[in-house]
Every structure is written in structure tokens, then in C-alpha cells.
Amino acid sequence: MALDVELVKKDFPILDQLVHGHRIVYLDSASSSQKPAAVLDAMQQLYETTYANVHRGVYSIAEESTRLYEEARTKVAAFLGAASTREVIFTKNVTEAINLVAYSWGRSNLGPGDAVLLTEMEHHANLVPWLQLKAERGIELRYLGVDGDGQLILDDLEQLVAGVKLVGLTLVSNVLGTLNPVAEVARVAHAAGALVLVDGAQYTPHFTTRVAELGCDFYGFTAHKMLGPTGIGCLWARESLLEAMPIFLGGGEMIRDVRLDGFTANELPWKFEAGTPPIAEAVGLGAAIDYLLAVGMADVRAHEIELTRYAMESLHERHGDDIRIFGPPDAEKRGGVLSFAYKDIHPHDISQVLDEVGVCVRAGHHCAKPLMRRLGVGATARASLYLYNDEADVDALSSALTSADRLFS
Amino acid sequence: MPGLEDLYREIILDHYRNPRNRGELPTPPAVRVEGFNPLCGDEIVVFLDVADDRVQDLRIGGQGCSISQSSASMMSAAVKGKTVAEARATIRAFKSLMSIHEQRLDGADDDGAGAGAGGPSVPEPEVKLGDLEALQGVVRFPVRIKCATLSWNTLAQGLDEAQETSATPS
Ligand SMILES: Cc1ncc(COP(=O)(O)O)c(C=O)c1O
């Protein structure tokens, strides 16, 4: 393993904290990751030295602030393999990125009877905006199903995609960890004349992202899950597609000219960025990208595979049939998101008992209620792994499960 | 920081392992009400048989965590056989126990969800909560308060429905 977790852990100040006298074992990065000092410092440095609003002032700190904000966009463009910075729109998070597509592209391209194909494993962020269009416009929603191993059922893809205008799917499931064959789905979708929107929230933090190779038309991610701050995310789309789309939110920044009887929209990418943007957050995101690139995305992913494999094997070994881990069994074909059921102890109770020894796992429906119904559970406990986790973290989880068993059985 | 022993008292675990009054009642005469905790997907079903202004019988169904299940179990034991007015007073007293505000000047329901309790807000000094007091530790774990109050809000709704049903002459 090329990644030195001992060293990585030292970069994350929060991991030194104690909870109930125990070191924090943070296993909830799929919900939101922790932040390295480099990200915190970059934001602090901006505020302390060159902070001002962007694209407005001619004085030097305003110019520097603008330069740093736009430099972050350049870093994101390179990180995604985008053709230009004009394709990179900063949003509040991935939820807003998807809503931007639903409002701007959706409301100018979808009418009664037009179909959108989604999957049963989508996060609410990629369901509700389309359900809103269904309620508002009478669009038709179709869904790709999920099999017992947590894989998308693609047998009927060609029939389902016929006549569809947009296919929206997540690249990695935030519940099952499933890594979906997006490039394959995109080929079939494009052959049928549909555009493809990809939710990269759980993918970009762990993999090298190349939007062109994925073959998608819209791609969104959120910074807080990839070591960056909250309050910033991104929508990527090809320039021609973005050019053709009407504006989303209106206000300052997104205009070229405003008269009392009308306005002209700004050019890309600012056309879609109304109001003062998240400036320090963009700088923080840029620093997060630098950090990830310095570690190396190939090593981040290799570490994830290795630790996921260790977690699945060691949990099964210790707990046998008492633990049921949802999603694909092969670590190479999944992300490090491990949703599980343990005996018949409720996930809330599991999470509470784990907290007693500093182990942080999520309990609930993970904003994927339709998928929960499909799995036949109301909630699951979920441990998710990132570059600052190691085998000792997994072992702490495993031992804490034994304590939960003692308390409730 | 509060410890686990504040939350998982022995009496709570006992009600969780051996829930009282689980099951169903024929509807009618009983009413059936469901309560959901949208945050965690827990659901509670309360079957409530109210006649002569008294909770003649009730049964609890559904699934949830130890706190929601034990709270429902204790609730069933606490209100079974009580008059509707006594049951409502117990609901108010329990919700007030679950209030995160240390100082309460009135017995008002600040959760809103149990608004069915109705009437002027008066303190409930006479209500003895008994075993239910064991749930007080939940207040120190704010995210779990909704687990503890789920069945009580559902009961409040059931009492409203039962009274509406009996108010309409058949
Ligand atoms: C797959 C997926 N999509 C969308 C989201 C929403 O992210 P955000 O809340 O940052 O918009 C999440 C995370 O919560 C997610 O895991």
C-alpha cells in the first residue's frame, strides 16, 4: 500500500480529538469527509490576507481574491478532465447542481409525456427534482431496478431508454457502494438520443474523474465529501449544452447588462452563478484538490479497495451470520461504503453504542428511501471509509459491535 | 458528556426485550393510527379501543429502535384502562418530561405534533409517570427525543380520531 495512513491522519486536526475519552474513529465520510489542515489554512489565509468580493473591485486584494477564485475553477476543470473552465459551474453542492439541470435544461426541454430514466438507488437529490417536474409538468419517470447484490439490472435498458430524453444515475451508490457502469449506460442512452446526467458525489472523492471517458453530458459533485468545505459543489457540462440552456437563478454576477426593461446574461461560466459566490469555499476546494493530487488518486482508490476488502473479510470472520453487509461483495467493484444490518439491533442503537467508544457511523435511510424499501429495511447502519482510515478503525468498529450485542441481547 | 447508562436504563431494555401490549385490535371498534419518524424510517401503529370515555384497550405494532419501542410499550401500560382525560394528561406530562428546556412555565406542547391534546395548557402536577421517568435520560441525547415521542404523538392522534368517531352518531 503506497498510501501512508499514519502520515495522512496527522494532516487532519479533528482526528486528534477525544470522544468519551476515546480517539475519534471517523467512519462517516460518505456523509461528509473531514478536512486536512491544508484546506483550513488556505481558507484562513484568504480571509486574513486578500479577502474581498470577486469580479468587482479594481483594488489589488479584490483582484487577488478574484484570481484565487478563478484559479480554483482551473483546478476543478483539470481534476475533472474538462475541456475548459467555461464548462465548470460552481454551485452550493451537488443537490443544487442537479436542480440547476432540472430547472434550466429540464424546464426548457421536458413537457407532458417526456420521459426521464433514473435508478432505484438514487439519492433523494437525484429523485426529488425530477419528481417535482413530474408533478408540475406531467413528465414520465422510469427506473432501472437493483438486484440482490446491489447491482443495476441492465437487461431491459434498451427498452427502458427508448423515447427517454434524459438518463440520470449515480456513479457510486451512497448506500450500497455499487460502482455503476456509467459509460455502458451512456452509450446505450446516447444511441437512443438521450442525454446522461451523472451524480458523482460518491465517486470524485475516491477515483480519478474523467468526464469525457464517462461519456456523460452533465456531471455533478460536492466538495464537502472530498476534503473540501461545505457550501460549494460543481456542475460540469459541455459548453455547447450550457450555452443553449436558459439561466437558472437571476441576480448579480450572472448578468452582462441590466436595463429596466430587460437583461442580458453573462457569458459562461458566470451565467449560472448568481450573487456573491462561495469565495473562500472555492479556495478551500482548490486546496482539497491539491491535497488529493499530492497523495495521488490512484493510491486513494487502491487504499479504499484494500481497506474495504479487509473490512468485509474481518467483519464476516468475527461476526459470521450476525452481520449482513449490503451491496456488491467484490471490493474492486464497489466503493468503501458499507451499509449493514447487525443481528436485529436497530441501526440507531448500534450507532449510539458505537459512539460511546468514539466510533462514528451513520444510521438511517441515507436519503434513499425508495432503495430502503427495495432492500426491505427501514434503516441501515453505514460505515464508510476514506484515506485517513486504517485497519485499526475497522477493528474498533468490529469490537464495538460485540458490545452492542452484549447490551441488547 | 452523558453516558450510555443514562439512556439505556434496565427498565427500558426490559420493555424493549419484552414489549407489553404488542399486537392488533379489530377495527372497528378500535381505531388504527400510524406514526412515522421521517428521519430514521421508524413506524409505530397504535390500535386504540375507546368506549365510555375510557381507553378500554390498546395494542402497539410497527418497528423501531429500542427507545421508540420501549417508550411505546411503557405508554401502553400507562394509559390502558385510563379515562381519555387521564390519558391526555399523561401525554402532556410525558411530552413535558421530553422537553429540552430545563425550565417550563407552562405545560405547553412545544413539539406541536401532539397538538391533539388541546385545551388550555395547565401544569400536570398530579400525573405520576412512574417507570416512564426512566426515559428522562433521552433528553440528553436530543436526536433520540423524536424516537421517544413518536408513539405518544400517535396516541394523541388516535384519541382525537376515537373521539371524533364516537361523536358522530352512526
Ligand atoms: C450519491 C449522492 N448524491 C447526492 C448527495 C447530496 O450531496 P449534497 O447534500 O452535498 O448536495 C449525496 C450526499 O449526501 C450523495 O451521497
Task: Compose a concise summary of this entry.
The complex is a heterodimer of chains A (409) and B (170). Chain A has 409 residues and is α/β, with parallel strands linked by helices.
The percent range for helix content of chain A is 40-55%
CATH topology of the largest domain in chain A: Aspartate Aminotransferase, domain 2
- Radius of gyration of chain A, in angstroms, nearest whole number: 22 Å
Query: What is the CATH topology of chain B?
Result: Sufe protein. Chain: A
In the CATH hierarchy, what is the superfamily of the largest domain in chain A?
A: Type I PLP-dependent aspartate aminotransferase-like (Major domain)
DSSP helix fraction of chain B: 25-40%
What distance lies between the first and last C-alpha atoms of chain B, to the nearest angstrom?
56 Å
Q: How many helices of chain A in DSSP terms?
A: 14
- How many domains, in number, for the residues of chain A? 2
What does this 3D model show about the protein?
- The complex is a heterodimer of chains A (409) and B (170).
- By secondary structure, chain A is an alpha/beta fold.
- Chain A has 14 helices and 17 strands.
- In chain A, the strands form five sheets. In chain A, strands 4-10-9-8-7-5-6 form a seven-stranded mixed β-sheet, with helices on both faces.
- In chain A, α2 (37-50) packs antiparallel against α10 (279-295).
- Chain A is globular and about 70 Å long.
- Chain B has a single domain, classed as Sufe protein. Chain: A.
- In chain B, strands 1-2-3 form a three-stranded antiparallel β-sheet, with helices on one face.
- The longest helix of chain B is centred in the last third of the chain and has 23 residues, at 145-167.
- The termini of chain B are far apart.
- The A-B interface holds A 19-20, 346-349, 352-353, 356, 363-365, 369, 372, 378-379, 407-408 and B 1, 3-4, 7-8, 13, 16-17, 39-43, 63-67, 141, 144, 147.
